[in-house]
Design brief:
There is one protein chain. Helices cover about 5% and strands about 45% of the residues. It is mainly beta. The protein is globular and about 45 Å long. The two termini are about 25 Å apart.
Length: about 140
């Protein structure tokens, strides 16, 4: 695992929800699954952080949607900005890269669920691609 970013801040479009996250993994994963695409309107790019390492201001404006038995997604109920993905059985969450204030220190490193990507775009940045969370495309 790479060195952690000591702290990032971020929030939603309208400012109703702001957060501070500590010890953030700088590696951004972009998900192309149909759930992420439908919720975000395109692709879902995020960085992993420990659930206990995130402090949220304006949590009363944060809505959690149970997207599947394994995960929920947090968004601002005022402006609709997507902010978090959280596994229901773990101790980590993902902060959406686009919600992090610049300079973020984040960098794209991989694409997941590429077999489920939209038919209207190509992935041509040369980064590793995976059929699921960790099955390389074309791998055995």
């Amino acid at each position: 695992m790479s060195d952690k970013i000591p702290e990032v801040t971020g929030g939603c479009f309208c400012g109703a929800v702001r957060y501070r996250a500590r010890s953030v993994d700088p590696e951004v994963t972009e998900c192309h699954c149909s759930q992420c695409r439908r919720q975000s309107g395109h692709r879902y790019a995020g960085a992993r952080v420990g659930t206990g390492d995130v402090d949220i201001d304006g949590a009363e404006a944060l809505t959690w949607f149970q997207a599947s038995p394994d995960a929920e997604r947090g968004f601002c109920s005022t402006c609709g900005s997507h902010l978090f993905w959280r596994g229901t059985h773990g101790d980590h969450m993902v902060i959406l890269a686009a919600s992090v204030d610049a300079p973020s220190g984040l960098r794209m490193v991989r694409h997941i669920f590429v077999g489920d990507k939209g038919d209207y775009y190509e992935i041509d940045d040369g980064l590793p691609q995976f059929d699921g969370y960790d099955a390389p495309v074309g791998g055995d």
